[in-house]
Amino acid sequence: MRIKMVCLEDGITSCGFRKMAAYVTGVNPDTEARYVSTNRFRRFGNNVLGRFGSVGELDDDSVDEVAQGLVGNDLVGFSSMTGYSDLTRRIVGRLRKLDPDTFIVWGGIHPIIHPEDAVTADVDAICTGEGEFAFAELHQLLQDDRDFTGVGNFWFKRGAEVVRNPFLPLMTPADMDTLPFPQYGADTERIYIPGMGFVPMGRTEYLAQFSLGYQTVWSIGCPFHCSFCGNTKFIANDVNYKKVRHPSPRYIVDEIKSVQQRFPFVSQVSFHDDSFMAIPYRELEEFADLWQAELAVPFAVYGVIPNYVKQEKFELLTWAGMNRIRMGIQSGSQDILDFYRRPTPPARIMEAGEVIGSFSGTYHVPPAYDIIVDNPIETRQDVVDTLELLYRIARPYTLLIYSLKVIPNTDLERAMAERGVDLDGIDSSYMSIPPRAANLLLYVLALWRPPRWIFDRLLRYARASAEPQRLFPRLGVILRTLYLAKRAVYHLRFMDFSVLPGRTGWLMWRFGIIGACQRRFTTRPPRPERGKRRQVSIRIPVVETSD
Ligand code: B12
Ligand code: SF4
Questions:
Q1: What is the pLDDT of residues 290-335, one digit of tens each?
Q2: Ligand whose nearest atom lies closest to the CA of 128
């Protein structure tokens, strides 16, 4: 069969899509990957101004050009998140007109989280769960020209009827070990450039997008069910999503090695797992030993949940090469945390901050803490509680500030509807932060902890987002510039070059500067003694994981 796999995203990170593209290529060698990235390179100027170009949007000519580039295949498989669902729908519609016989499948996060919406596109099928084994079965039945409409994890169109099949069991860690590594830098990958169609995607594109970094996901699953998160839907589909599942440490280390064989300049790895720190210590220990022995690259861990921050895990991972973390705080107000159904009380966040603070500034680039602003149900006191928490939490740190947007079909959407609040859906605007006093104070705190009396005076300006208030756009640009500059300095001080723009970073790698700096200037703590795992009291009960 002739298959094209198409990813729509703001960028080309596409962790799940790359897994699927590799798997489908294994099942069906005549498979090629296509990337439609609607905001290829973020521009520094726009970042300073807080203007983020439209994502998930293409004009009609481009939609036509993309669809033309997909004509002539037996099967076209799309993959997208909700922010790209309208665009997916438009491309699918156009492709259907140009090539009515192509079998069109839509997979990825949107059909999982909002299948009732995805199925209304002009597709033949949607994939509502993990794609690998389900696709292999579908492919076999299509090849054999047999009835395929009973394949699990898929919904199919049969005339006017929609066949909604049940979910397949989730993959086990042993299953995950059998999967091919995500496709990365294959000769068959192409990217869409307006006016040029799909062009080969080589080293330049990877360097421009990721610089010297490599982004991946080792584990899947999270025990929590915050109302704004897609995890609520995953768990509703199958409660086993609460367990943190992952292939073996050997697998993930070999994945990185295979990437380095193709792109030897990769000098920093970022893990985007939902809850990396929930992985049991003994498995992290195996991972750390292999990483330290076989990979010389530092790594960052995103998706750290306060409840799982433990000194022992941090010591171990830092010894192995961890040099940066990102943790979700979201709010410092207990009421708002309750509203989000996040079992991470402010006291536990502060405790996690202490552990993290003991590494940042010496071994780590200062951590990034996620904060959600613009929640219309927040009172002034809630806003002040967040600012107070950030005033008190261990420093240094930086903040990643997001404006609250609602992912359709999540518990948050229902909770907001119950309160009669109408919020925008997820699009690029989640990164545009209105220059209200309270939001600007967040930038101030990311830069500097002012003396208490100054902070108290500044706090007087803080208002709830729904209150009428003055905006400070010019001050916003100044503070944002300083905040971005400080972040860049942090990275460079800790020899994290993954932020250097493509060619500059590559040249520094080529002349051996990066390796030399990383060896000479980075320090690591000693390895924690084997078998001497410290018992750490955890006051907040955590949900059982696979441990
Ligand atoms: C890694 C990650 C990122 C990375 C990389 C993005 C990527 N596409 O991989 C980064 C940091 C860039 C990122 C950014 C964002 N992300 Co994100 N991210 C994730 C995360 C944590 C893991 C994704 C993943 O790899 N999962 C594991 C893989 C194996 O699963 P998968 O992607 O679903 O793929 C499987 C199936 O969907 C299916 N499948 C996929 N494609 C296809 C195609 C076909 C044809 C078939 C048959 C099947 C199929 O098979 C795959 C293998 O089993 C998820 C949370 C989660 N648990 O999924 C959030 C998540 C996907 N992100 C989310 C969001 C909202 C964003 C952002 C908008 C910012 C934000 N606020 O978080 C940005 C937008 C990014 C962009 N570039 O456009 C939401 C999406 C919600 C939605 N309804 O769209 C999620 C679900 C988290 C959440 N908050 O709920 N993200
Ligand atoms: S802790 Fe993070 S990944 Fe888990 S449900 Fe909450 S927001 Fe989602």
A1: 999 999 799 999 999 999 999 999 999 999 999 999 999 999 999 9
A2: 1
Name 76's bridge partners. 4, 104
Pairing status of strand 125-127 against strand 103-107: parallel
Tell me which residue of 104, 107, 103 sits closest to 145, measured CA to CA.
103
In order of 61, 124, 547, the CA distances from 161 in angstroms are: 32, 11, 43
**Contact between residue 240 and residue 222 where contact means Cβ atoms under 8 Å apart:** no
**Tens digit of each residue's pLDDT (9 = 90 or more) over 165-184:** 999 999 999 999 999 999 99
Give, as one character, the DSSP assignment of residue 367: P
Tokens 């989000």 identify what position? 340
Residue 344: which of 301, 379, 381, 309 has the closest Cα?
309
Cβ–Cβ under 8 Å, residues 517 and 320 = no
Q: Is 274 in the pocket of ligand 1 (CB under 6 A)?
A: yes
pTM listed for this prediction: 0.94
- Whether residue 498 contacts residue 267, with contact meaning beta carbons closer than 8 Å, is answered with yes
From the CB of residue 442, how many other CB atoms can be counted at a distance below 10 Å?
A: 22
Those residues with Cβ within 8 angstroms of residue 331's Cβ, 6 or more apart along the chain or in another chain: 337, 340, 371, 372, 375, 378, 382, 385, 386
Tally Cβ neighbours within 10 Å of residue 297. 19
The Cα–Cα gap between 78 and 65 comes to 16
Task: Report whether 246 contacts 274 (CB < 8 A).
Answer: no
Q: What pLDDT was estimated at residue 367?
A: 96
Dist. CA 272–CA 324, nearest whole Å: 12
Return the percent helix, strand and coil in the chain, to nearest 5: 45, 15, 40
Q: How much distance in Å is there from the Cα of 116 to the middle of ligand 2?
A: 23
Classify residue 84 by its DSSP letter. G
Top mutation candidate among 12, 37, 81, 409 for ligand 1, by most atoms within 8 Å of CB: 81
- Tokens at residue 286, please? 């195996």
Q: Helices in 496-538 by DSSP H: which ranges?
A: 502-510, 513-521
**Which of 35, 38, 109 most suits a substitution to test ligand 1, by most atoms within 8 Å of the C-beta?**
109
Judge if the beta carbon of residue 341 lies within 6 A of ligand 1.
Answer: no
Phi, psi of 117 (to 5 degrees): -80, -50
